[in-house]
Each structure stands twice: as C-alpha cells, then as structure tokens.
Amino acid sequence: MQGARAPRDQGQSPGRMSALGRSSVILLTYVLAATELTCLFMQFSIVPYLSRKLGLDSIAFGYLQTTFGVLQLLGGPVFGRFADQRGARAALTLSFLAALALYLLLAAASSPALPGVYLLFASRLPGALMHTLP
Predict the structure, then answer these.
(1) I need a labelling partner for 112 at 20 to 30 A (CA). Which of 16, 27, 70, 80 fits?
(2) pLDDT tens digits, one per residue of 53-96
(3) What is the domain partition of the chain in residue ranges?
C-alpha cells in the first residue's frame, strides 16, 4: 500500500491555503496591523498641534477627541456584526480602508486651501470602523 498514498497537496480543495500561504498571510496581517497602529499613534500626537494651528481652543479639541472615542464605542458592535456576516478578510479590509480615509482627511485638513476645521472633525468619522486589533 505504499504507492496508494497521495501527495499532501492533492487532497486539499482549491480554496484552502497551503502552510506557506497561510504563514505569509499571517505575516502580512501583522505587518499591516503594526503599520496601522503606528499611524494611529502618530496621528494622536499630530492632532493637538494641528488643532492649535487651525485655531481650535482646548474645549473644541476635547470635543474632537470625545467624538473619536464615542464613534469607536458605537461603531464596535456595528463592525462586529459586519465581521460576523462578511468574514475576517472583509472586516480587515474595511478597517484598513477606514484608517486610510481618516489619514487622508487628516492630511487634507492641514491644507490652507481647504476648510481645515471641518475636515479635522470629518476625519474622526471613519474611526467608527477602525477596529483592526479586535
């Protein structure tokens, strides 16, 4: 019965990943999550200076930070439901796209030709879907 054994890769369905493919996807996920967290912490340190440059006082800055926290709190169950229905890949893609939108709006807020304060507050809105780690 030695010749009856099939090679390992032939028994898998086409939709399943090999061990090499799975490890590279996990590595890519870790790299993307680390990059997203680095950018998140960078924007936490940039937003106070940007808000001062745009003329916000400390109370408006508090509203800005509270808006981000509340949107993440309220967006958690919505994002979790989306992840349950669509899967982890779609959820991570949505989370990274939301982070991209936040960073692009934040970059646009620093442009003098655009309404910076409105874009600064609008940059907080994608925070409802930024749940990479969970």
Answers:
(1) 70
(2) 999 999 999 999 999 999 999 999 999 999 999 998 899 999 99
(3) 22-130
Rounded CA separation 72/79 (Å): 10
> Between the CA of residue 25 and those of 21, 42, 55, 110, what are the distances in Å?
6, 26, 44, 35
Q: What is the rounded CA–CA span in Å between residue 27 and residue 107?
A: 28
Q: What is the dihedral of CA 64, 106, 27, 86, to 10 degrees?
A: 70
Angstrom CA distances, 43 to 15, 48, 66, 99, stand at: 38, 9, 15, 11
Question: For tokens 């390992």, what's the residue?
Answer: 8
3-state secondary structure 78-122: HHHHHHHHHCHHHHHHHHHHHHHHHHHHHHHHCCCCCCHHHHHHH
